[in-house]
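name: query_chain
kind: protein
chains: 1
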Amino acid sequence: MFDAWAFYRTYGHRMGHTPALKEPTIGQGSPTARLLRSRFDADHYRKTYLEGADPDADPFEHYLVEGALAGNSPNAWFDEVWYLAYYADAREAVERGEYVSGYHHYLVVGSAQARMPRFDLKRALEGRLPGVTDPFLLPRSEQLEKRVRTIHPVV
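structure:
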């Protein structure tokens, strides 16, 4: 038996459907909150964004109320600022209110589209300049990766 979310994950995104994501409020028990919590790393979030805060504070509650709007990354494997800077369509969808954050976009559609959750020089170059990482240029991309540091543009 499929619920609406399972149907979308299995068939809907391939059929070009867009899920209805707008909720009046995104509380702890909402479908969006449950999805965001599914891969949220409370320990990482607390160490990264809540240093010196009340130890009893709920990191996920902070993320829902303030962190997502501030561009905080919910775990170590997802870079919110980079994702929204690299994927303009995701940034525009977040700005229109279709998604809570880039992380939300990634969980709903980005993962199924094999989008990068964080900076990866080879994949980023190939995504923007197809063929640039062909074997004759491959050693150059590794040299570039050693010299280039991730720069987070102001969005």
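note: The longest helix spans residues 59-70.
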